[in-house]
Amino acid sequence: MFWIDYLVIFIPLIVMAAISLYSRKYVKGVSDFLTASRVAGRYVIAVAGGEAAMGLISVIAIVEVYYASGFGYGFWSKLIIPISMFLSLTGFCTYRFRETRAMTTGQLLEMRYSRSFRITAAVIQAASGILNYGIFPAVGARFLIYYLDLPMYLDIGSWHCPMFALMVTVCLTVAAVIACLGGQITIMVSDCVQGIISYPLYMILVFYFFYRFSWNRDILPALLARPPGQSFLNPYDIQHLRDFNLFYVFVGVCNTFFNRLSWAGCQGYSAAARSPHEQKMGGLLGSWRGGFSHMMLVMIALVVYTYMHDSRFESGPAGANAVNYQLAQKTLSDVAGAPKYDAQRDAILLKLKHAAPRFDTKTNLPVEKSNNSTVDNYDRIATEELRRIDPKLAQTYGAIHTQMRAGMTMREMLPIGITGIFAVLMIFLMISTDNTYMHSWGTILIQDILLPIRGKPFSPKHQLLLLRCGILFVALFAFVFSLFFAQVDYIMMFMEITGAIWIGGGTVITLGLYWKRGTSAGAFAGLIGGALVALGGIFGQHNWVGVIYPWLERTGNLAAVSGILTAVSKPFNPYVVWTVTPYKFPVNSREIAFLGLLVSIVLFAIASLITCRKPFNLDRMLHRGLYSDDGIGKPVPKIDFIKFCRGLIGITPEYSKGDKVLAWTVVCWSIGYAFAGCFLVPLIWNFFYRWPAAWWGNYFWFTSIFMTSLVGLISTFWFAIGGTLDLRRLFRDLAEKKVNDLDDGRVINNVSAVDAARVAEVENTQNRMEMKMSESDKEKKV
């Protein structure tokens, strides 16, 4: 890192901090802190929401997946395109949630079911979300240590301070300060500013990758050199990929429906738009927002894999061999840094040094490989030696090694200036996700647990103080969890299994918004059933190596359990294979989550059908018909063929001409190009003639690099301008917004407190009319 890199890092951070501090003055009440007063425009929702949802941990996790399984299985994920497009265009779940005017999913659950269910659900949801978030600061801090080449320990006087603990503290402090300053307002403003600044930086980084690596000379040959059944490009040759395969895609299709609104990590954005229509349009804009940010993920995975597997990049002080050696060395010092491992660690480091025949005298790094080594030779040596010491330690080593590979490689690969750009992008992504998740899970603790238990309102001042305390509690938990929790699996799988604790939440929210006969009893059954499946999976994964497998072996039950698991998974081979080994739990996190989803749906449906006595009044919850602001509701249009087609893609009378153009462009791009052109045509073609792997390489280049570059060139300027203009309007609307102290998240008799008086008036009027009609009918009979 040179001074220009630090300049590139600090200038954007200072700009973001200054605007965030400026936005704090608009926080006047609870609704400002929770939902930014519900005045956000579509571009702010799209830009800021995209930045918050991506995150540094998502970059590392997705690159980790691509490095392990390539891009071939992603071809089948295009099945999700028409489904996702239809759900976005119709505003599936998101539109109805915004119609409820709930500030959190917990408030929605009390309105739909009961207060006791809201509290129970909030406990499970918060536990799932906070556990899921627990590794975010750890991964982010570790990435900065590895990428910036910081020492593992820092001597401050007589204090031998772990750099990891120090970096976790810094990362959490920055995010917590932003979240506590102004809640959703400062979070959304800072995320939007980060997104606007990041768009051109993504473009610069991607163009550098194009300049440095040739597709035909460097990248494609590395991707083609794969064993049979494990192709990185050919979707018909992936049967031996274990974790990220066709079953992984299938579960993703199911989650598209049932987990549409369940994950509350970014829930502040779900209620921040100025209207349900604006919320829907923000989601539609998200279809075009990706551009270079998505390309950056793909290109990082491509160039890292190429750099580590192409012999042209193997030797030299900054070559792949040197990167592997440093990565193994640093990861070993990371996971086995305790004094009790000193002797074993030194012995392993000596073996790593002997694995390379020649070292550079200046850097003390290997500059060439021994003839009998492989690209991951150092990793193999360290893993085997650690297994002899502690098998679980070897698991943690493997997880961290794969996570940090991309950061270490990028550090050696990028030139001056670009190194700083990549660093500030990752810092932006880390901050945006950290403050958003802290806000979401911290506010759930207060709004959906403490507030319903108390039963009466706090003063706005005290409620804001409690909300900030909730955010600080999440930060404190994440600090402790990061220091003591040892990862044993892919990041994506950890997120899957911890998120599965709340897998039943998607069921009760989705069906609760659309099915009148869902009951509280069904919601309890579905939510708890799904959580128990996930908790059982977590226990199995973290105790398999040290407890369960040795116990099965000792008691003689290993063969029986192995036979049962093999027999159960056999019908789903080769994509679901439950093979028993001493090193890893046989059922992966995606499979556990899917089992939890099935259990939650079945239990919710059965219990609801048994206990339902009267259909729920969805119109009242959604402010429709008599319960709308004007007491009339939206007119029901006459149905003709054109209107029917518009309805299929979600076009309603609320759409302006520009909105209709946007909707139709999304349809044409998603169905005409992405689904028909990029999926159906190759699918039919390969039914008659199977493409060789090289053809799939050309297909991947055209669809994922060339066409995405064109979209990126347009979206970079489009969203930078749109986001800037919308941000100015946001400040203007916040200044004019009036505070309503009743809008604090409370629910009275299944109605939001802010709407209670209006609903009571409507229902009293309706009751009087019914009584008059009844008296009139009696008089007629007389």
Q: If you had to describe this structure to a student in words, what would you say it looks like?
A:
This protein is mainly α and 782 residues long. It is 71% helix and 2% strand. It has 32 helices and 4 strands. It has a two-stranded antiparallel sheet. A hairpin with a 2-residue loop joins strand 3 (747-748) and strand 4 (751-752). Helix 8 (115-133) packs antiparallel against helix 21 (418-454) and helix 17 (320-335) runs antiparallel to helix 18. Residues 370-374 and 636-641 have low confidence and may be disordered.
List the helices and strands and how they pair.
Layout: H1 3-23, H2 30-35, H3 42-54, H4 56-69, H5 80-90, H6 94-100, H7 105-112, H8 115-133, H9 136-147, E1 153-156, E2 159-162, H10 163-182, H11 184-212, H12 215-224, H13 246-258, H14 267-270, H15 276-289, H16 292-309, H17 320-335, H18 342-354, H19 377-389, H20 391-413, H21 418-454, H22 460-484, H23 491-499, H24 503-514, H25 520-555, H26 558-569, H27 589-611, H28 618-622, H29 641-648, H30 657-688, H31 693-736, E3 747-748, E4 751-752, H32 756-781
Antiparallel strand pairs: 1-2, 3-4
Helix pairs in contact: 1-11, 1-21, 3-11, 3-15, 3-21, 3-31, 4-16, 4-20, 5-13, 5-15, 5-30, 6-15, 7-8, 7-24, 8-21, 8-23, 8-25, 9-10, 9-20, 9-21, 9-22, 10-11, 10-21, 10-22, 11-16, 11-21, 11-31, 12-16, 12-31, 13-27, 15-30, 16-20, 16-31, 17-18, 17-19, 17-20, 18-19, 19-20, 21-22, 23-27, ...
